[in-house]
Design brief:
Layout (H helix, E strand, L loop, with lengths): L5 E14 L4 E10 H10 L2 E8 H13 L13 H16 L4 H11 L3 H15 L4 H6 L7 H13 L2 H58 L5 H15 L1 H20 L1 H13 L3 H22 L4 H10 L4 H15 L5 H6 L5 H13 L2 H57 L1
Antiparallel strand pairs: 1-2, 1-3
């Protein structure tokens, strides 16, 4: 845990920092404690990146030269939950007046994810070497995306890094919640469908052949439903190896297809037009767009840069194309609401409220209100979907299994009726 250096008289502290203009400054400052020195430098509009007693400065330089920093080569993406916790703790430390280097060192040493810990410590080394925090973070896109680094750069330029980090933490936490809602909306019906398919496959594979052998021994004429079920059973047994290979290869094939431009457009378009689930996905996309753009604009990021970052983080190529088309229109001098409306992707209420926000000069506030509204809509829609899907899926499974049972008992009922 970081502890301030306490001295009995005025001491001299060597510091490295950045001005509001982004220039790196070095020097010494006399004060009773490190806390007092940092506070004095902040009053002079200097963001302290490193500070230590003057005597320790030479040792720090020697250590840095003996252990040179290596660029990060970690390809594994950092989990959003870990990033949210890091950002929240970072903002608290910056607000408390701790220098950037010491904040990053503390956070890096306590991070449980070894990959993320190495990235944080590498960022600390780059900042200590004189790079800005945003430039140091840009070297690690698997942890800090364009939205994160652009907002950090705006916070450094405006001297409000602690405020920006708080906004980032809130944004990431809300984004994690939205992703969780998407999974909740999709995992439950998929799980029920997989279970239903498994039950039907077991019946066709193990139970139906017994009935088929019995009916063949009796030589009775079978009703059409019974013949269909027996044909399905024979097909499953005969082509089981091919079916198994297809089921294993299907997710990989879909992933490869989605990686193509045509595949992304088709899959995203189909999911957005799907009944019930498509409406939820559209609301989630609108909420994410509004939340991201509101966070960027309120942090001082230019509107064109904000739209480009928002498009890249939309998570849906249809929304991405609409936002980029809007960006091109704004470059020609148009407003935001008009081109957004022309894309026919966003609901009319959204474009009208954005228009009001532009007219009143409170676009970021209006976007935040839209995001709040649609996030509540998503909560309600997901809860309703899960409530609706349970009886529907159970009923569907009952009909399938019941239909198979009835089809197999129809010949027995027919033979009994002939005997009587």
């Amino acid at each position: 845990m970081w502890r301030p250096y306490r001295v009995t008289s005025m001491a001299t502290f060597a510091y490295t920092g950045r001005t509001r203009a982004g220039n790196v400054v070095n020097g010494e400052r006399s004060a009773d404690t490190i806390e007092a020195a940092v506070a004095a430098l902040r009053r002079d509009q200097v963001v302290v990146t490193r500070i230590a007693p003057a005597k320790a400065k030479a040792k720090a330089k020697a250590k840095a030269s003996a252990d040179p920093a290596k660029p990060s080569r970690f390809a594994r993406r950092v989990k959003a939950k870990n990033l949210a916790i890091f950002t929240r703790q970072f903002s608290v430390m910056i607000d408390a007046g701790l220098p950037l280097v010491q904040c990053l060192e503390i956070l890096g040493n306590q991070e449980e994810d070894k990959n993320f810990a190495k990235i944080i410590l590498q960022t600390r080394a780059d900042v200590e070497a004189g790079a800005s925090l945003a430039d140091a973070m840009k070297k690690h896109p698997t942890a800090f995306d364009g939205l994160f680094t652009n907002m950090v750069a705006a916070g450094e330029a405006g001297g409000i890094l602690d405020t920006i980090l708080k906004r980032l933490a809130i944004y990431i936490e809300k984004n994690v919640k939205l992703k969780g809602q998407v999974k909740s909306a999709m995992i439950y019906p998929i799980a029920i469908m997989v279970m239903a398919a498994g039950v039907v496959a077991v019946i066709l594979w193990k139970v139906i052949p017994t009935f088929a052998a019995m009916f063949a021994g009796l030589g009775a004429e079978l009703p059409l439903p019974t013949r269909v079920v027996i044909a399905l059973s024979n097909g499953l047994i005969r082509f089981f190896p091919f079916i198994a290979v297809a089921l294993v290869a299907m997710p990989f094939g879909l992933r490869q297809y989605y990686a193509t431009d045509r595949g992304r457009h088709m899959v995203d378009a189909v999911t957005m037009k799907a009944p019930v689930l498509g409406l939820i996905i559209r609301k989630i996309a609108v909420a994410r767009f509004c939340r991201t753009l509101a966070t960027l604009i309120s942090s001082g990021v230019p509107i064109l840069d904000g739209l480009e970052i928002t498009a890249k983080t939309a998570g849906n190529v249809i929304i991405q194309d609409a936002v980029m088309a809007t960006r091109k229109s704004i470059e020609r001098g148009e407003t935001i609401s008009a081109p957004l409306k022309e894309t026919k992707v966003f609901p009319s209420m959204v474009t009208q409220m954005i228009g009001v926000g532009e007219a009143t000069g409170a676009l970021d506030t209006m976007l935040g209100k839209i995001a709040d509204f649609y996030e509540e809509e998503v909560d309600t829609a997901v809860a309703g979907l899960l409530t609706l899907m349970e009886p529907i899926m159970i009923g569907t499974l009952g009909l399938i299994v019941g239909g198979i049972v009835i089809a197999m008992y129809m010949p027995i009922f027919s033979m009994i009726s002939h005997l009587t």
